[in-house]
Amino acid sequence: MDNSFKKIISEGLASLSSVFNSNKSNNDALGIDIGSSAIKVVQLKKKNGKAVLETYGVLSLGPYGSTDVGAVTNLKTDDLSRALLDVIKEANVTTKSAVIAIPSLSSLIFTLSLPNKIDEGQLSKIIPIEARKYIPVPITEVTLDWFVIPREAEFLEDEESSPNITQPKIEVLVVAIHNDTLSQYRDILKKTDLTSDSFEMEIFSNIRSSFNHELTPVMLIDFGASKTKVSIVEAGVVRIFHVVNRGSQDISRNISQSLSIPFEEAEKLKRSVGLDASIDPRIEKIARLSVNYIFADINSIVFAYEKKYNKSISKVFLVGGGSLLKGLLDSAKENFKVEVVFSNPFSKTEAPAFLEPILEASGPEFAVAVGLALRQLS
Known about the structure:
five-stranded mixed sheet, 2 domains, Nucleotidyltransferase, domain 5, 11 helices
């Protein structure tokens, strides 16, 4: 394990973060979310103990890869650096203190079950050995971080009253990040003249900006351009992480191919029509196919979780630019049969009142960037 990493408890929630010599004394911070189709930035300033929104911005990466707005890209470091500099300039960002999110797709998140008799001091030796079973590349090519998931209070009470009770195994949440990804992000910082004392997995940024100390099991669905990431979180601890091999770009591509129209036009139709059959039933039917596929995959994950832990999901949070698909919220409510809400990360910041409707509407797209900046100010 890289000794420059350490584990922290953030915002009163037991979350796993990777930090490089973290310094929390900054008065302002820039959260940078580099996605597969766009870069989002949010600059916050600490004032009178509150996080004040100074500026925010989003920039599509498609044109930097000679493709369409909304399309998934795989840009080189120089192109990403150039795009980041452009969005920083357009958003009038002033601070040089930044935090970058590590995409979930550039890492692995899994849970290890270890014998309860293992001393926690031995974990640094045991976890890399056990993690090899889950990591498809040599262990030397990744950086590991982990967090021991606390056992439930009710079990601990039973254990005290009945010392002979069968003890469960130790559960450890493990994150493996490819070293090449970390090197690329360090290069981006260097090329853009930004300073950063930390990187963080995007899932933990989402938790920080979206949740309000929910203790019961909740689900966070991050609709990205290329993939949909699903996390089941209990008391701030990620219990399940799953990637669905569908994203918002698939809807645009299917519309483009089915109607024989350019991708750019299909992207506009996706945004204006989405799942609203009253506007255009053709578009709704095409979009519904991808959404149903995503929901079916998520339903199987929820079923497996509820069967394993004998607990039900109490609430669903929607984040990511793809979650703004017209009609998705209502479809999610109908599918999951629980409370479903959009993430509203800007509610944790102070901003001019006239901006509130705009910030609430665009909040799901900026959940990661806001979470990163909040962490820096905490």
